Amino acid sequence: MDIEIAELNDIKEAVEKLKSSLLERRPKRGPGEDTRNAIDTILKHFDQHEESLWGHVIQLPEHVGGGIRLIERTNLPAEGLFGRYKRGIRRQTGKKILTHELESIPPESILVNNLNDPRYVQILCGSIEKLPEAFAELDREEEHKLAKLKLKSNEQSRTTSKKVPKIETASLSRSDKNFVRKPSLKNKILKAANSRTIKFDA
User: Fold this and answer.
1) Per-residue pLDDT tens digits for 42-66
2) Helix%, strand%, coil% for the chain, nearest 5
């Protein structure tokens, strides 16, 4: 941690040196208009984004153990992971557009990358050899939950005849997307909209 803080301070110092160097090299007048404009653009970006050019240190409260934590400068690590994930799918499928694949793959599948980290494996199941047992235990828990839900559903069906409404999310299912994208549906909507004249109150 001390090494990382030292690196962070080195970055800050290097940026300050760069700013000073740019100010010294900036032509105040004369024919160096292009150089002056270029330096002004860089300095303007420094003024707007300087605080985001490096991570920052957060002091943790004592009730969670105290100490400090370094926060990443940006979300680039997560974006890089997603980029590698998509490249892997492209190699497997040979496709450039991955909309169908990314909609079909469970979000949890990206966690497989964590199995490359021995610490993650240790917390998850102890060792890679015990991974099948961990998955089997998850299956047993899921089957137990489904059995309880089925029992509860049967009890409710005996006491009421009302159907439980289907819960929809903000994202349409693939079958629904295929349906709403059909040209025939668009034509029906336009025909219905044009079938009568809309009157507005004066």
Assistant:
1) 999 888 888 777 777 777 788 877 7
2) 70, 5, 30
